[in-house]
Design brief:
Layout lengths: L1 H10 L17 H18 L6 H8 L3 H8 L2 H12 L12 H9 L4 H18 L3 H28 L13 H16 L5 H16 L6
Helix pairs in contact: 2-3, 2-5, 5-8, 6-10, 9-10
């Protein structure tokens, strides 16, 4: 009996040990974060249209089949990478005033990261015009969830009495904030900075809402 067991063990196939540098397929949280960072680096280097799943697989030593199995396609992978790279969720922001909340949101990225991410988002915005799958994934994964959280943030300001509930500018808060990021690059050829955005909030967004401009 013992001899038979030994023989069976000897005949059993041995799992190969991956060689250093071999492709990896298991997705752990750490591995996922590593992969998302590589996707963002590739996006900054070549843009959305030139980015391929083959390039992501090569950069991250992944199986392309694993990438498709985990994310379905390029659009989903890119949007999830962008979402993972964002500095934090809006739901954790509640300083007790709308001005404090908006200033805190602007302080979550330093000027260098803000410049990089602003350029990245401009490139993705252009790509969305010709890629409906990217546009849909972006709306479902980023725009709609963040709009829902932002409405809660603004509603708290209404509930505190900082903004009149019938203020006509309430529907355009996100448009105003997005304009601060985009228009400066177009008009002044300068990236947004924390100082610029805080000044913009105090001079434009809060007065339009009739909200206090000092804390």
């Amino acid at each position: 009996m013992a001899e038979a067991a030994k023989g069976a063990a000897a005949a059993a196939p041995v799992e190969p040990v991956p060689a250093p540098g071999a492709r990896r397929s298991r997705i752990t949280p750490e591995r996922e974060a590593e992969l998302y960072e590589a996707v963002l680096d590739l996006l900054r280097e070549v843009g959305y249209d030139a980015l391929t799943m083959d390039a992501v697989a090569a950069r991250t030593r992944s199986s392309k089949a694993t990438l498709y199995r985990q994310w379905g396609g390029k659009a989903e992978l890119v949007v999830r990478a962008v979402r993972h790279g964002k500095p934090g969720k809006l739901e954790g922001t509640d300083t007790g005033s709308l001005r404090g909340d908006l200033h805190e949101l602007m302080s979550r990225e330093d000027d260098c990261a803000m410049e990089q991410n602003s350029a990245l988002m401009r490139g993705l915005a252009m790509a969305m015009h010709s890629n409906p799958d990217l546009r849909q994934a972006f709306r479902e994964q980023l725009v709609e969830p963040e709009m829902a959280e932002f409405r809660k943030l603004v509603q708290r300001a209404v509930d505190r009495g900082e903004i009149r509930p019938d203020c006509p500018a309430l529907d355009f808060v996100v448009h105003m904030l997005a304009g601060g990021f985009v228009v400066r690059a177009l008009i002044e050829n300068q990236p947004p900075t924390q100082a610029f955005l805080r000044s913009y909030i105090d001079a434009v967004v809060l007065p339009a809402l009739g909200a206090p401009t000092t804390s």
